[in-house]
Amino acid sequence: MEDNRFGYVLSGALKIHYPEHTVTVLPGEVFFACAGPHCVEYSDRYSAIYLRFDDQAVINARNVLSSRYDMLDFPPDTAVSDSPVCRCRPELKRFFFQLKDDMEPAVLKLRLCELLLLLISHNEYECQAALAQCVGRLTDPFERIVRESVFEHITVKQLAERTHRNLTAFKQDFRRTFHDTPHRWLLKQRLLQARFLIIGTQLPIGRIATETGFDNVSHFIKLFRQTYQITPLALRKTNRGQL
Predict the structure, then answer these.
(1) Which of 183, 212, 225, 228 is deepest in the core (most CB within 10 A)?
(2) Residue 241 has what pLDDT?
(3) What is the C-alpha separation between 220 and 209, in angstroms, rounded?
(4) Contact call for residues 212 and 190 (beta carbons, < 8 A)
(5) Measuring CA to CA, how many Å separate 170 from each of 127, 142, 154, 167, 178?
(6) What is the spatial distance between Cα 171 and Cα 182, in angstroms, rounded to a whole number?
(7) What CA–CA distance (Å, rounded) separates 212 from 32?
(8) Cα distances (Å, whole numbers) of residue 81 to 125, 138, 178
């Protein structure tokens, strides 16, 4: 997913699959999903209202709050999950029902300012911290460079050079940012994206392996089976049309 999404589930259920866990969002709950590779699964009769925005839009809204209202926008040291979920307060519910499709950039900025004010005033620290990550991705390009390179046929050493770090510094910064080693994290992201493409498209398994950064199809199938306890082809047959 290229954009961030802040959403309110009206009916049904949403599941967001990450490499380490799955987040389930039920009717009446609000969720924030950062841009990045993951799979989503919808139940029957699923309906939701979304606000979509990129990282720069968050920075623009933050700057408005800082300059015009002298507000500190985000808590500096709040832990955050991949996709925080909270109950929808009446003020947030009104906010979502007032959203419109295809908003002009100026309107989007105002809406994001309103959203930040609501999150700050109601101490929704985890959602605030998730939005702070959007700012951090543009302030320090390290995470952006890694995420943009994840499906390329690239070694860890080459990725370190792309971020202008030696291998030792790269591994230290990588663990601090992604809480895992480069090899394990890259493998998880590539397999997750492969799973999404297997279920959600009709692309041949070999092409999916290539597009997600695997040089050897047989090795890809072996790793996929070790991770998900099912072969790619069997997964496609049993989950056709579910994502």
Answers:
(1) 212
(2) 46
(3) 6
(4) yes
(5) 28, 9, 15, 5, 12
(6) 7
(7) 25
(8) 11, 19, 12
Per residue in 68-96, pLDDT (tens digit) is 655 544 554 444 555 677 777 888 889 99
Write out 18-51 in H/E/C secondary structure: CCCCEEEECCCEEEEECCCCCEEEECCCCEEEEE
- 215-222, long-range: CB < 8 A, 24+ apart: 215/153, 220/194
CATH C-level class of 183-238 = mainly alpha
Residues 202-221: pLDDT tens digits? 899 999 999 999 999 999 99
| CATH class entry, domain 4-138 | mainly beta
E strands within the chain? 4-11, 14-17, 22-25, 29-33, 39-42, 47-53, 85-87
Q: What is the mean pLDDT of residues 154-158?
A: 93
Reading the block at residue 136, the tokens are: 């951090």
The string of pLDDT tens digits covering residues 103-146 is 888 888 888 888 888 877 777 766 766 776 676 666 668 887 88
Residue 8, beta-bridge partner list: 30, 49
How many CA atoms, within 13 angstroms, populate the side-chain half-sphere of residue 27? Answer: 8
The span from the CA of 130 to the CA of 27, in Å, is 21
How far apart, in whole angstroms, are the C-alpha atoms of residue 57 and residue 35? 13
Longest dimension (CA), the chain: 58
